[in-house]
Amino acid sequence: MNGINTKHFETGSKCPPIDPEKLTVYNMRYCPFAQRTILVLLKKNVPFDTINVSLSKKPEWFLERNPLGKVPAIQIGDKIIYESMITVDYIDRVYGGKTLNPKDPYQDALDRMLIERFTLALPPHYRLFYGQPSEITPEQRKEWSQEMLDKLYVLEEALLERQTPYFGGDSLMMVKWIELMEQDSAVKAYRVTTEDFLEFRRSKLEGNTNYNIIADRQ
Q: Nearest 5°: CA angle at 185, between 183 and 187?
């Protein structure tokens, strides 16, 4: 996973060399959607390079590759794929090892619906985590916190119904959950500490987002 903790490229930068024979991930170190792709690559032991990009000062060459300007995106030779769930499905199909999606079409559909429901918990999380504290009223904080918890309870209830450690049974699959996630080798390899996340949040709230908190320590 070369480059995973390197500095983020910004507007005006030159695109680094890309190995046409190797998968490259365009990433932002603190992005939960990009984490999906990185974790799947790690779990399936796929060799890859990482190019970290600033999302507030996006490099021109990155926008040429992904007009949406979002991460993750992956590149293999002249093939470029973006959107997190599309990239992980592609990786799961193309690369060997244990599949991370159920073989049963109905179970696969159920899991995908759960993933979509989990995604609904992200907007209130972002409003709470990245909103200016002075601009959030106590009523809003209570409302958004409850909204986020309600969305997460859906996953908790589904896991209880399945009566397994993970949503996919006894091993990690595309749908995952908190405590056991932290014990997984892929999660351990890519995990961002609470302290680093809080420092990233502080810099973002101050209007000078520091994407290189981890890279600066290397």
A: 75
> Strand 48-52 and strand 79-82: pairing?
unpaired
Task: List strands edge to edge, sheet with 48-52.
Answer: 48-52, 23-27, 73-76, 79-82
Q: Round to whole Å and give the CA distance between 13 and 26.
A: 14
Question: Using CA atoms, how far apart are residues 13 and 31, in angstroms rounded to an integer?
Answer: 21
Q: Among all residues, which ones are annotated catalytic?
A: 31
| Cα of 149 vs its chain's centroid, Å | 20
β-pairing, 48-52 vs 73-76, is unpaired
What number of H helices and E strands is found in the chain?
Answer: 9, 4
- Residue 100 gets which letter from DSSP? S
Backbone φ and ψ of 157, nearest 5°: -65, -40
First to last CA, the chain: 15
- Tens digit of each residue's pLDDT, the chain (218 residues): 578 999 999 999 999 999 999 999 999 999 989 998 999 999 899 999 999 999 999 999 999 999 999 999 999 999 999 999 999 999 999 998 878 888 889 988 988 888 888 888 888 988 998 888 889 999 999 999 999 888 888 877 877 787 766 665 554 444 444 555 667 788 888 889 989 989 999 999 998 999 999 999 87
